[in-house]
């Protein structure tokens, strides 16, 4: 058993993966299922979540999402996840997609641009790809 005070559990990591997939695809396969009552609806959601193949869930997405979900689903409940591995996988994906680590978030650029523009002008929306990561820190503090 691990003694990491701030570790995320396997189910938490899977939920994060589902959320990331939702952000990209706009919906998840178990959304919008029709049922006669809540118990039936939750049973249907459970069945879809347990039976959907990762190849289907992560279809038309970068391979890192599939590998993330595979890693999380094969993780034993008693094992501490390798957060550095998971973080590095997505950092490399961002680099491959052309994002840069310039310590500036797009929303900071929009806020600054909006504050500088007059009320009569439309604020500029940044199209610059950027993201910030500090590779010297762990994903989860210990």
3D structure, described in words:
By secondary structure, the chain is mainly alpha-helical. It folds into 2 domains: 10-81, no CATH class; 99-142, no CATH class. It is 50% helix and 0% strand. It contains 6 helices and no strands. It has helices at 10-25, 38-51, 54-57, 63-74, 83-96, 106-116. Helix 1 runs antiparallel to helix 4 (63-74). The two termini are 16 Å apart. Mean pLDDT is 79; it is low at 120-142.
What are the defining features of this structure?
single chain, about 140 residues, mainly alpha, 6 helices, disordered C terminus
Q: How much of the residues is beta strand, in percent?
A: under 5%
Helix content: 40-55%
Shape: globular
Uncertain regions: pLDDT < 50 for 5+ in a row?
120-142
Return the structural class.
Answer: mainly alpha
What is the count of β-strands? 0
Count of the domains? 2
Largest sheet: none
Instruction: List the secondary-structure elements in sequence, H or E.
Output: HHHHHH
